[in-house]
Amino acid sequence: MVLQATTMALLLVVFFFTHISMARGDIGTATAYGPPYLPTLCNGNRVDQFPPGNLFVAVNEGLWDNGAACGRRYRLRCLSGRNHPCKTDIIEVQVVNFCPKSPCPSSFLMSKEAFAAISRLPNARLNVEYIEI
To answer: For the whole model, what pTM was predicted?
Structure first.
């Protein structure tokens, strides 16, 4: 019985910290972008720069930090958007590029795979919460 109570308390603590960890995040926007993804400003034509699952992003000037953003990882979740596009998943993405569009349409240009992980609608513009990890 004591073991069950300890296990339950541990699960509650893990749940609490998993969900509270986004509470201090920043707010931005996200859109999807598709291939070709190479070359990038971070690692040129290296195919091995992309993280597993292709969960990567290009970032706008505000996040780019003169290239220091390369390799940074963010925990990101969808907050809202037109026609209720948000899924409930929280994902982790890695910065591989500076936004290739001018002006940049959002804080994060997400790979198709990363975008599909948090949005039901492939062409939506999302309001997102993010935190560097």
So the answer is: 0.82
